Amino acid sequence: FTILGLCVAVVTVRRATRQVGAIAATAERISDSDLSRRLPVTGPDDELRQLTTVMNGMLDRLEEAFTRQASFVASAAHELRTPIATVRTIIQIAERQGRIPDDLADDMRAVLDANHRLERLIAALLEIARSQNDQGLPQSQVDFTALVDDAVNQARDEAAGGVSLDWERPASPIIVLGIPEVLRSAVDNLINNAVRHNRPDGWVHVKLEPAHEKVRLRVTNSGDGSLTPELIAGLTAPFNRGTRTRLGGDAGLGLGLTLVETVLSRHGGTLDLAGGDDGGLEVVATIPVTAQ
């Protein structure tokens, strides 16, 4: 009876341990970018099964809350687009018709600049909301090398202030599985941020390299040494502009890296930031590749 009792105890403990291990493994894969996973409900109707059921219910409520939040942001941005575009159109028509007095010309120009900034902000919020709700969008094989190549060429043509852009292109195409438009938006933000937030006559280096069933996009730029480790750690937070303020003309929206991190997370990738050797910023975007 003692031996039989020990055997039953070992079997019971092993079964419970396997259940706990399966729950822990699933819980580790659950994140704000993938709330569709649920903990496995197996075994007898005991306390462990009840706990799993309660946690799955909590995940249902969290997923619904995240979906409502993204839908609210997208709906609010859509609603704001029309009145802001109307204000811009009215001012531009009055300006073309010469109906704006000379003493109000500078004020109207400031209103137009603020209006343009609002339009950019709304477009960025819509892009982030779409990235957070892209589970239903079809994915396809994307030539990530060609995508980065196009983004680099476009940024090089639009670069100002004497900023040079160096592109270290891999010898062969690197294929990833994803949504081409969303990935292109993330790559554009990475490269354009490196060009825009730079010193005059600075440089930007873009490198694409395979790394253990993943591809690593490394974007490094020169800088003025103002980025501290504390500032770098918070650059992916929404509306974080680093050392610039929202009152500055070149402050940007502070949403570029937020969008990049959201897109990469949706595609199973990661975003890492570190200080560059020349006082700038080194951004590394990693994303899984498909089988060649």
Task: Walk me through this protein's architecture.
The protein is α+β, with helices and mostly antiparallel strands and about 290 residues long. Helices cover about 55% and strands about 15% of the residues. The protein has seven helices and seven strands, in the order αααβαββαββααββ. The strands form two sheets. The chain has a five-stranded mixed β-sheet with strand order 2-4-5-7-6. Strands 1-3 form a two-stranded antiparallel ribbon. A hairpin with a 5-residue loop joins β6 (about 270-275) and β7. The longest helix has about 50 residues, at about 45-95. It starts with a helix and ends with a strand. The relative contact order is 0.09. The model has no long low-confidence stretch (mean pLDDT about 80).
Task: Give the key terms.
7 helices; 292 residues; alpha+beta
| SSE order | HHHEHEEHEEHHEE
Number of helices: 7
Low-confidence parts, pLDDT < 50 over ≥5 residues? none
Using only CA atoms, what is the Rg? Answer: 25 Å
**Which word captures the global form?**
extended
Strand portion: 5-15%
The CA-CA distance between the termini, in Å, is 59 Å
User: How confident is the prediction overall: mean pLDDT?
Assistant: 81
Q: Largest beta sheet, briefly? A: 5 strands, mixed
The oligomeric state of the chains shown is single chain
Strand order of the largest sheet: 2-4-5-7-6
* Helix fraction by DSSP (H/I, runs of at least 4): 40-55%
Topology:
Elements lengths: L1 H28 L17 H50 L8 H28 L7 E4 H15 L5 E5 L6 E4 L1 H17 L6 E8 L3 E8 L7 H5 L22 H11 L3 E6 L5 E8 L4
Parallel strand pairs: 2-4
Antiparallel strand pairs: 1-3, 4-5, 5-7, 6-7
Helix pairs in contact: 2-3, 3-7, 4-5, 5-7
